[in-house]
Specification:
Chain lengths: 619, 156, 268
């Protein structure tokens, strides 16, 4: 194997990931740091990378302050309610107060926004959502990033962050490899904004053959958003808060426009509205949370799961009425074509025309991410003007590692951001990162070649494992001395599925299962030293697996730590089948010791925005 | 699922290799044309299908759950700012849709921030982002809250 | 410039009988026919092609008259095939055109000179050797440009230029025949007598022709026949509305310029 060339780059702001959050950060950084060197590193090609590759049909986070439609506090209360009380309200308010300016920019840039014919305003799909023709959403925002950046690196996977050797707990950059040329890339940076993808494929999916590819969240979201800060020792929060989605069967096509715009509704196989049946039982589990409006996402899932387990399935979306209207029929199909083409493919293949058939729904396997109806991620500082003291340590969106910022899926506690909110969060992180540099906090960073030379060996080891180990066998995929990335992935998925609340057990887990799961994950981590990669593409898959495995360990530790069932419908703690506000109305955080690999867990207080009339006080 | 490439149409231009977010479109060594090397990591995002100048790439729904005989094909026309879809069911039902993909010439109204006015120190020290508070369209300042409005504890 | 107008085959006729050269040409032709037929029979690709065309016809929205079909076929031959329009605007198309027309000139020039002007005392009109040499030169230029810079596995996948794969058999053999032919012609003209390199490139020229024409079953040679067929089928399908299940072009003005497609497929 020829020796891989090392390419060095030095910059001021390094944005890891060129998705919605990464493009937002890259774009905004130029405004505040005119003379700074701004680099964005993307694993794929920034024009179509990330979760928005195929486009979006709605922007799910827009206040509409200009028309008095919503105020930021309203969104905070909405997100708080949906997450059963546990969000970072300072981060949520901060994102919500800025998101409108982001959306207005998208409009100026050429993103087609649907308009309400009567009012002339953006066409609302629901209280927070507006409808767009967003097939080219990603190329448009990618161009904004390209215009701001000094350079965009494509096809480079960042595998590790670099730490400063002169000052404890400070970031110094990142390293990775180019999956085309095989070159080793060392980025020395004064600040790093991690804006990588959340975690799909850490639980066994419902389709395990070719269909593995049809995950709800992109299959290339391999949890780098978590693994990079976790490995560097940053504090993480709410990693137990995985999300399960109720979507159209097999294709996981979106239901938002159906519920909100087409006004369709669900029913069980006998034509009954089943949700009411589960009200009493759910109330016993979670108390008054079931009476909130709108009903929290997880509780709606819960009713669905219970109904299916009780034999009421398959559950359908009643579309026959709505689809008689040709306008609504068009919206129903274009909703998929602009966002999840795979669902249109599924219906075409199975002859499902919603005008004549009510299509099936399903609940997905769990995902861990930070920008949807869930908020796993890094524990970051909030904005100076509003964050309570426990939530602020100098710079907005900075993790507990100096100079390491997060945006998008990476940031924990700020839920319901979606695409526009993630882009906005990128902008916030960028401004703060520039300020950090201007405050001279990044002076005197030292990285010796020992650090990145050691990492180089670690990074390319899977290729060494394969080349050497391959000599042992005649051929085929079975080797006693190395495992392929797909073999490792399927093992990881099975462990998480069976022990950490996957679909096999109807999202149920308990402390015994979780402890066993941690043991199995520990064995897997050891075996990951022996992943074998045949070429650079497989090397990328190997590192995706390693990031997923580390994320999974963190998720399992958090799930074990929180001794209650806070989000029935996302997962259940069989040994604590109740929501416990007395002991667990708090956020969970963890820190992994980079030397020992041990996780230490903590509780963090939750602060709520309260108006003059408080509704209920408990602790 | 996944994507597959028509032998008669592919001429080995590399656009699909370049764009695929999953890095699964690569060049076959026998015929120097594109193919999908890892269908189980294909999201059916259609990025490659749209990027192909010869419409050489098509999609066959995931074998796990999609019966055969369907077709969902697309024509993305950047100069017209349109995307056109033709859906054919296994039973022959056909649906066609055309949508806009941009309202402005590509890139023309996306600013190069390096050329815009520099922010002053007040703006740097404040909470506003680029193009704010003007870009909020509210004729008001950026909303903020009193730190006292945050209370620790259980509140609904 | 002497070299460009001297017929290498008539010089060769001093040692090799013209009838042997002509037999060689027939042998190469036989290789092509045999290799292509073997490919067709073994892979059943022509059967697939016609089955597919029949299936597509079911989705035609209109019937094409024989006049329309003739016009479409002619336009396809003249434009799609004649200008390699499939490759769009840019270097790949230019390199392909250089190589394609270079090869055509080279082969036509070879056949004409071998069959009409291959005796020792032949009076070859200057045109034919010039066409022969020009064709070979164009093929070497177009082919090498493609080989070093434009192959998609090199350009978009960052493979090194010296990596050889099965798909390279055709283009390498083509460059080899033209390059060795040129060098042979040049050295032959110098009348080196019994010097060691007098016959080497002739031998290499013969071998590379064997590889090029003998390798038809394993290389992309036969695609030269399949691709034009595919282009004709595609244009007919566009005209009769079946369009390979693609939606029709949108009825909208071209006003927005290019977006992602502005850039070349190399972003690493």
């Amino acid at each position: 194997m020829p020796k891989n060339k090392t390419v060095f780059e030095e910059c001021d702001v390094l944005v890891v990931g060129g998705g919605m959050a990464g493009t937002g950060a890259t774009f905004e950084a130029r405004h505040w740091g005119r003379d700074l060197k701004i680099i964005c590193v993307e694993k794929a090609n920034i024009d179509r990378s990330g979760a928005v590759a195929q486009g979006l049909y709605a922007i799910n986070c827009y206040m509409g302050m200009q028309w008095g439609e919503n105020q930021p506090e309203d969104h905070v209360r909405y997100a708080r309610n949906d997450l059963m009380g546990l969000v970072r309200e300072d981060l949520g308010y901060d994102m919500a107060r800025h998101v409108d300016s982001t959306v207005h920019m998208f409009d100026e840039w050429g993103l087609p926004m649907m308009k309400n014919k009567e009012t002339g305003r953006y066409q609302r799909e629901g209280k927070w959502q507006i409808m767009i023709h967003g097939e080219s959403y990603k190329p448009i925002v990618a161009e904004a990033a390209k215009k701001s950046a000094d350079k965009i690196y494509n096809r480079i996977m960042i595998t590790h962050l670099l730490k400063d050797e002169s000052k404890q707990n400070r970031i110094a950059g990142a390293v990775g490899f180019n999956m085309r040329t095989g070159d080793y890339h060392v980025f020395k940076a004064k600040t790093v904004i991690v804006a990588a993808g959340g975690a799909s494929h850490i639980f066994k999916p419902r389709a395990v053959g070719e269909g593995m590819g049809r995950t709800w969240y992109a299959p290339w979201s391999n949890g780098s958003a978590y693994a990079l800060p976790i490995a560097a020792g940053a504090k993480m929060t709410q990693m137990e808060n995985r999300i399960v989605l109720c979507r159209f069967k097999d294709g996981y096509g979106p239901v938002g426009a159906y519920f909100l715009h087409l006004k369709t509704y669900t029913q069980n196989a006998n034509g009954e509205n089943y949700e009411k049946k589960w009200y009493e039982a759910t109330k016993k589990l979670v108390g008054e949370y079931i009476d909130h409006h709108p009903v929290p996402t997880c509780l709606r899932n819960h009713a669905f799961i219970q109904e299916v387990a009780a034999g009421g399935g398959p559950i359908h979306m009643v579309t026959k009425e709505a689809f008689q209207d040709p306008h609504l029929e068009t919206v129903g199909w274009e909703n998929f074509l602009g966002m999840t083409v795979g669902q249109a493919v599924v219906w075409a293949s199975q002859n499902i025309d919603p005008k004549y058939t009510n299509p099936e729904l399903t609940t997905s396997e769990p995902y861990v991410m930070g920008s949807h109806a869930t908020c796993s991620g890094a524990w970051v500082s909030g904005p100076e003007d509003i964050a309570p003291s426990e939530y602020f340590w100098g710079y907005n969106r900075m993790t507990t590692i100096e100079g390491l910022f997060g945006a998008g899926d990476t940031v924990g506690g700020s839920a319901h951001k979606f695409s526009s909110g993630s882009f906005t969060e990128g902008r916030l992180a960028a401004k703060a990162a520039v300020k950090y540099i201007q405050d001279k906090k990044a002076n005197g960073i030292e990285v010796t070649d020992k650090q990145y030379n050691n990492l180089k060996e670690v990074i390319y080891k899977p290729m060494e494992n394969y080349t050497v180990g391959r000599n042992e066998i005649t051929g085929g995929t079975v080797s006693p001395s190395y495992i392929s990335p797909i073999q490792g992935l399927q093992r990881l998925q099975k462990i998480m599925d069976e022990y950490c609340g996957g679909i096999t057990n109807n999202y149920m887990t308990n402390d015994n299962l979780l402890k066993k799961g941690l043991e199995q994950l520990g064995l897997l981590q050891e075996d990951l030293e022996n992943v074998g990669a045949e070429d650079y593409h497989q090397l990328m898959r190997a590192w995706e697996l390693k990031h997923r495995a580390l994320t999974s360990q963190c998720v399992t530790e958090h799930t074990l730590f929180r001794e209650e069932t806070r989000w029935p419908g996302y997962y259940y703690r069989g040994d604590h089948m109740k929501l416990d506000d007395d002991n667990w109305h708090c956020l969970t955080t963890s820190e992994r010791n980079p030397e020992t690999g041990k996780f230490s867990m903590e509780k963090q207080p939750v602060y709520h925005i309260v108006d003059e009339k408080d509704k209920k006080k408990a602790s | 699922m996944s994507t597959f490439v028509y032998m008669t149409r592919c001429d080995g231009c590399g656009h699909c290799v370049d764009i695929c977010p999953s890095d699964i479109m690569h060049i076959d060594e026998t015929i120097r044309r594109a193919k999908n090397i890892e269908p189980n990591f294909c999201w059916e995002c259609y990025s490659c299908v749209k990027a192909c100048p010869n419409h050489a790439i098509d999609v066959r729904g995931y074998a796990d759950f999609a019966p055969m005989g369907h077709s969902v094909r697309v024509r993305r026309e950047e100069e017209k700012g349109t995307i056109s879809w033709r859906i054919k069911f296994r039973n022959g039902t056909e649906k066609n849709f055309v949508s806009p993909i941009t309202t402005k010439p590509w890139g023309k109204f996306i600013p190069k921030l390096a050329e815009k006015d520099k922010p002053n120190q007040g703006e740097i020290n404040s909470q506003i982002l680029y193009n704010e508070p003007h870009g909020l369209n509210t004729d008001k300042d950026l909303p903020t809250l009193n730190k006292d409005s945050f209370k620790k504890g259980v509140y609904y | 410039m002497n070299i460009l107008s001297s017929n290498p085959f008539s010089i060769l006729a001093e040692t090799v009988p013209p009838v042997a050269m002509q037999a060689f040409v027939f042998l190469m032709l036989a290789f092509v026919v045999f290799g292509t037929l073997l490919d067709i029979i073994h892979k059943k690709n022509v059967k697939y092609f016609f089955n597919n065309a029949k299936k597509a016809k079911k989705f035609a929205t209109r019937e094409l008259s024989s006049g329309e079909k003739f016009a479409i076929v002619s336009k396809t031959v003249a434009y799609d095939i004649g200008t390699t329009s499939e490759l769009g605007a840019g270097k790949r198309r230019i390199a392909h055109l250089l190589g394609m027309y270079g090869t055509i000139l080279f082969w036509v020039g070879s056949v004409v000179m071998v069959f009409c002007y291959s005796s020792v005392d032949a009076e070859t009109p200057r045109l034919w050797p010039m066409i022969w040499h020009a064709g070979a030169l164009m093929t070497v230029l177009g082919g090498s440009w493609f080989w070093f810079f434009l192959r998609v596995d090199v350009y978009s996948e960052a493979q090194p230029w010296y990596r050889i794969i099965k798909a390279d058999l055709f283009v390498l053999a083509l460059i080899a025949t033209s390059l060795t032919g040129l060098i042979w012609s040049y050295l032959q003209n110098l009348e080196l007598g019994d010097r060691w390199d007098d016959k080497v490139f002739l031998v290499l020229f013969v071998i590379s022709n064997f590889v090029l024409f003998g390798g038809v079953y394993w290389s992309k040679f036969a695609h030269m026949f399949y691709k034009p067929g595919a282009a004709i089928q595609k244009n007919l399908a566009e005209a009769d509305g079946s369009r390979d299940n693609l939606p029709p072009p949108a009825d909208a003005p071209e006003q927005f310029g290019l977006g992602i497609k502005r850039e070349a497929p190399k972003h690493y």
